[in-house]
Amino acid sequence: MSRAPERNDVRAAAHPRTRNDTRQRIAHLAARIMAEDGIEDHGLAKKKAARQAGVADTRQLPGNDEIDEALRLYRQIYQADDHSRRLMELREIAISAMVELEKFNPHLIGAVLSGTAGKYAGIQLQLFTDDAKAVELFLIDQGIEYEAGQTSLYSGDTRITVPLYTLNDDGAEIEIVVLSPRDARVPLKTSLTGKVIDRAKLSAVEELLSQT
Questions:
Q1: Are 133 and 105 in contact (CB under 8 A)?
Q2: Mean residue pLDDT across the chain
Q3: What is the pTM of this model?
Q4: What is the number of domains present in the chain?
Q5: Are residues 68 and 90 in the same domain?
Q6: Which residue, of 29, 92, 193, 195, is most buried by count of CB atoms within 10 Å of its CB?
């Protein structure tokens, strides 16, 4: 004869579903925050959403992919026309910049590539060249104003510090990260445990634009 489940058994059985429901709720809250407030930082949106939901357990926070999926759904329902128009504008600006930087093997990454970019989103490019200094000289020669800095990425399991140039083109911020050609052959991540960064070369972005 099977025994009736004890209270702890019922609680344990219900726990995974409860956690999944909470993750989904936070993902949709974070997506709304990103869409309405123009926040591009997933981590910040998650924290704000968790506070709104009254959730302190970080194990119940959704991953970035879950938020991106919720963000796509939100924009399809509430921002379809505006989002499509802005995404097209950003991809056009990205293509123009990639054409200018073509000799440095530019690749588009981030929200403009994935299609989750909002009205305040910036354009993120990765360049692959043996001569990182040549990128800065090119910007100077073209009379393009920029801010120089550095950022960190993970090439496989190795943390690397690389040049970062930030500039403005037609009202859109463009972040340019300069990497070596060998980095194009390995997975690049923003953190050791993060997702591999998707990237697309010029021809692929032009194809995306035709479908936007």
A1: no
A2: 87
A3: 0.75
A4: 2
A5: no
A6: 29
